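User: Hi! I have a protein structure encoded as tokens and I'd like to know what sequence might fold into it. I'm fairly new to this, so please keep things simple.
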């Protein structure tokens, strides 16, 4: 009965062979694990945990799952810019508020520019105005009169911005002046304009003096209140000698409209910065023998120096 014995031996040998192969497989698996573990050692011998991206511990980046979810339709969604540790993010800048003029009620230091003048046309609605407010013609200053050649003085201390017939850049127009100035040059119309002085009063406001017969100040000159500026006249479109006095702030955002016929004829801008009633800053007029002295009838005045 030798055959059965050989079968048992063969079976025994086969079992030994299988056990050896299994041992070799286990050893190979362990060796591979050791190799992988050594390869997974980070700098300095630290071990990177399974599933963690190398570098995440240094940068604070999330695991690789986050980078996968950051893909949108084939385009990478930009991640927020990193902020270095120990640095505070810069605050969002706030919008710079627009400067506003000081309330008119706070203005001081004004005096009458034509000390003995009579008020011949007040600030406000008038049939002769060249400005339009609430659909009505409007006079944007005060007309004062005594006699031709009377002294006109500074109503407030300040710096002369314009003196003569080239003053429009200082007048508070809102819009492009080039067409208007080009028309004046082409047609030689500067001689038809009134002689005007514009003064920066140093308080956020400007004073306008118009229709001089002659001026004695120059741009850039610093003047005190009461300083002689020139002499009452009738230059420009005026029917008699008088002074037009106006007041406005370049910081003002409100505007008033110009008569459309004037805009069309003169090519001036259609808007100007809103004016202030000078009576709000001027002292109560004093009565004096000189003020009571009769003067020439002022007649019909131009209701604003923009009418030319």
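Assistant: Happy to help. Inverse folding works backwards from shape to sequence: for each of the 308 positions I chose a residue that suits the local structure. Here it is:
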């Amino acid at each position: 009965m030798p055959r059965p014995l050989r079968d048992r031996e063969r079976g025994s040998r086969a079992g030994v062979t299988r056990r050896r192969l299994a041992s070799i497989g286990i050893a190979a698996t362990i060796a591979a694990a050791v190799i992988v573990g050594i390869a997974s050692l980070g700098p300095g011998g630290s071990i990177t945990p399974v599933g963690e991206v190398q570098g995440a511990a240094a940068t604070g980046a999330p695991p690789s799952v986050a980078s996968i979810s950051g893909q949108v339709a084939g385009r990478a969604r930009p991640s927020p810019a990193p902020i270095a540790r120990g640095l505070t993010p810069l605050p969002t800048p706030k919008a710079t508020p627009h400067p506003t003029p000081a309330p008119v009620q706070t203005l001081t230091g004004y005096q009458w520019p034509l000390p003995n003048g009579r008020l011949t046309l007040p600030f406000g609605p008038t049939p002769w105005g060249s400005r339009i407010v609430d659909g009505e013609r409007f006079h944007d200053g005060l007309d004062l009169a005594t006699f031709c050649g009377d002294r006109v003085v500074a109503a407030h201390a300040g710096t002369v911005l314009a003196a003569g017939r080239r003053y429009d850049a200082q007048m508070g127009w809102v819009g492009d002046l080039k067409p208007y100035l080009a028309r004046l040059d082409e047609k030689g119309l500067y001689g038809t304009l009134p002689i005007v002085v514009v003064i920066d009063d140093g308080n956020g406001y400007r004073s306008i003096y118009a229709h001089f017969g002659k001026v004695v100040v120059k741009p850039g000159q610093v003047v005190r209140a009461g300083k002689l500026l020139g002499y009452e006249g009738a230059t420009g479109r005026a029917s008699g000698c008088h002074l037009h006095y106006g007041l406005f702030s370049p910081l003002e955002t409100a505007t008033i409209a110009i008569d459309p016929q004037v805009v069309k004829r003169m090519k001036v801008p259609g808007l100007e910065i809103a004016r202030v009633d000078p009576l709000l800053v001027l002292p109560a007029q004093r009565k004096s023998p000189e003020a009571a002295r009769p003067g020439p009838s002022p007649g019909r005045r131009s209701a604003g120096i923009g009418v030319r």
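A useful reference point when you look it over: The CA atoms of residues 173 and 272 lie 4 Å apart. Feel free to ask if any position seems puzzling.
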